[in-house]
Amino acid sequence: MASNIIRRTLATSATSPLKIGLIPADGIGKEVVPAARRVLESLSNGPKFEFVELEAGFEHFQKTGTALPKETITTLKNECHGAIFGAVSSPSHKVEGYSSPIVALRKHLDLYANVRPVVSVKSPAFPNQRELDMLIIRENTECLYIKQERLETDPKTGKKLAWAERKISEEACHRIGTMAFNMALTRQKLREQKPLAERIWKHNPRVTIVHKSNVLSVTDGLFRETVRSVKEQNLEKYGGVDMEEQLVDSMVYRMFREPEAFDVVVAPNLYGDILSDGAAALVGSLGVVPSANVGDEFVMGEPVHGSAPDIAGKGIANPIAAIRSAALLLEHMGYTEQALKMYDAVDAVLVDGSILTPDLGGKSTTNDVVDAVLRHL
Ligand code: ATP
Q: Which runs of consecutive H residues, i.e. helices, occur in 99-218?
């Protein structure tokens, strides 16, 4: 079944391969991206893939002085249908000339949404797991992340005074809101293929709008009003999707108290960033949580975890987040059937619980987990 978001891929012919850029970048990115590639290559009756390895990252910066080579950007823009990004190391202090390649890639490719499913699986690895099936959609281009900061001297006190500007545009709010309502409908369609008893979310599709417009009435007020207007101006299409609002502080509280109350959650960049990392704590390990950076023309899968320097090179990184990110990439390119197969195979490995990496309490290696996923495909 094709996704309702039209992607460039859908315009390619059935016989021409899907060209996927692989950007392992730093640390365990070099281990989990090849793992995701092995799973994609093993899909039967799916699209044919052609992979192209591309450079980026802090390690590349240390070697060459460039974190994101021009060639990586032009190859992705001109030749690739989608990409998988591994992980980038973030130096804790300011390094002259270095800025994050992932932030730059989101800008260059206009990947305006970060989409993060947080889904529970019943597994011995997560004995206290609450049932949840939530999708956090974070606006990826604006808010405080435009990095308009300045440092002044307070004329009254003579002490430092720091400012940051925040941008919220109607256009960006409208497109992220549209994505949230479309995803709510797509998720509902996919759920309806399962018997009711097997569904985690059993209600009407629901979009929760997160903001703080009681304090930031201009910026968050615009976010709130514009996302609301997506439904209000298109009741024919979105009338069946429930809409609710949540102030960001109470959202954090509710998300941990009753995560099962959320379906699609849409938020401006900063709140979405914080919420989505917090949500990863609800499902056991950073090593299992995927994300995708999504635009109208391009999709880039990206596991939520970082480069994990403490375990890099040991062969024990959990590849599940990267494999699920590759599935998310396929899902957003319209290859839903193949994506579902990958999700199911990963879930089967977790449910079985005998082959798990150390972050989930197991003793298996990255390759053992990939082999187990392939057996379930
Ligand atoms: P960075 O500087 O790249 O952000 P970090 O160590 O600060 O690195 P993460 O890479 O996200 O942040 O790692 C946080 C913790 O989670 C580390 O202890 C790491 O080993 C663990 N971790 C992250 N990803 C995985 C994974 N895929 N498999 C196993 N453990 C992981």
A: 101-108, 170-191
**Strand duo 264-267 + 292-294: pairing:** unpaired
* Whether pLDDT at 3 is above 60: no
CA atoms within 13 A on the CB side of 51: 15
Residues 6+ apart with CB under 8 A from 330: 40, 46, 336, 338, 339, 342
Please report the domains of the chain, with CATH numbers, ordered by start residue. 1-116+285-377 (3.40.718.10), 130-283 (3.40.718.10)
Atom of ligand 1 minimally distant from the CA of 87:
3
Q: Is 310 in the pocket of ligand 1 (CB under 6 A)?
A: yes
Judged against a pLDDT cut of 60, whether residue 130 lies above it is answered with yes
Beta carbons of 287 and 306 less than 8 angstroms apart: no
Percent of the chain with pLDDT over 90: 80
Torsion angles phi and psi, residue 110, rounded to 5: 50, 50
Which three-class secondary structure string do you get for 214-242? CCCCCHHHHHHHHHHHHHHCCHHHHCCCE
**Residue type at 130 in one-letter notation:** R
Q: What is the pLDDT of residue 165?
A: 96
pLDDT tens readout for residues 65-93 = 999 999 999 999 999 999 999 999 978 78
Which residue minimizes the CA distance to atom 25 of ligand 1?
287
Mean pLDDT, residues 180-206: 92
Tally the residues of the chain: 377
Distance 43 CA to ligand 1 centre (A): 28
